[in-house]
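Data deposition worksheet. Section B asks for the primary sequence of the deposited chain exactly as it was used as input, without tags or linkers unless they were present during the calculation. Section C holds the resulting structure in token form. Section D is free text for depositor observations; keep each observation to a single sentence. Incomplete worksheets are returned to the depositor.
Section A, Depositor: J.P.
Section B:
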Amino acid sequence: MFKVVLHGVRSNEPMLLAVQKGNAARSAFLNYSHRRRCDVGGRRFFSATWSLFGRGPPSRKEKKTVDIPGLERVTYADRMHFVPGLAKPIFPEWQRDWHDPHHYRGPDNEEMKLHKENPCYVFNQRTKILEGVRQALWLTKSKLIQGLPEHILSLAEDPANQIEDQDERVQQAIRHSRFWDTTALRPKRDRFCPVLLRDLLHLCGTLQVKHTSLSKRILAENYRVAALWNRESDIFQVRGLNGMLLNSMTPLPAVAQSGEVLATENHTLETFYPISPTIDLQCTYVYDQKNDTGFRDGYPYPHTHTLFFTETEDSAAKFKPEQLRAKMIMFAFGNALARAKSLYGEHPQVLEHPVVVQSIATDGRLFQFIVLQLNTTDLGPDTGVKNLVWMDQDQLLYDYAKCRPLIKKKVVTVPAGLSGYQPETFKKFLALHLHGAV
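Section C:
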């Protein structure tokens, strides 16, 4: 495109001079300058345009040193200053005689004691796998069943297992976490979500008078689990921090009986070709081949009961619902596998007594429920007995909890306070808590 300039000359026809100005680059600069409130009159605003149009120093090319066998290079090392015409000396790397943590340089991966030839694909607390639940089911060799088991849900339907003034006390717990615990109009999730979870666990703990086995449990935080297994030709590991754990003195009973477990041999695992099952997992050649529950031998509460995950405001640790459910499956499987190998050994086998682990995740309003039953530690091939996963997803505890009403067009669409409480969600929470104690 050309810019036409009209010059007034003594002629019947004006002279047209076409001058090419590079309008594409100029328009981009002017648009950028307008956004950054620059002067569009042609002067550069260097605080905004230096990164676009500034030129840095030219890159220096390193000169290659040529070593000729039999000839010694003459350098200015003895003179201790630069001398034109003499070569630059090459000194050996200086080694400290003491340990300086601020200038420590770690060894190469190949020189580490835990270096292995075959890579390991690690799932940690910040891993967000692409395929979500489908990928987690393939990694753990599991079959998915929608909904929680009926005999577990029936525990909360029995009036003898319910809390006195249950719905009112649950709503008081919600108000405490959203309104009374802080003076902020919109408290952050990392503030009200753990408060709500602990209040709900406290309500469930009031049933210890009726069921004394509830007192034989304990909550643990900041523990680390490690579980390693082979899947086809690859090595996988679940390790790291994984939320809050409810441990028990006695293990959870098996959810599915032997007949239903043997029927899983006919189930075909779903694949997601051409996507690799190792996508989004951390690949490392330095790892420790161990299985650890995170607790020492002789711990009085060795059995995992329920894992609790709370969502935070940290953008790096924020999960989509599908990825959060996959994380719940992976860490429930990791805790179950570590416990199974501590009980039955490292040899792959079909477990005579399956290991059951539950998992609950919430963002303060939406709840996810998972029950995993580990039936086998023979996870290499796709054939044989599969593990079982029951999942109930996206269960709302309430619709809104607002300090101020939401008004649109002079109409109150959402009133102030708690609205839309759904008691069925807490009944599922209570049923999983009572599982193994009733």
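Section D:
Residues 38 and 47 are 9 Å apart (CA to CA).
Confidence is low (pLDDT under 50) at residues 1-22, 32-40.
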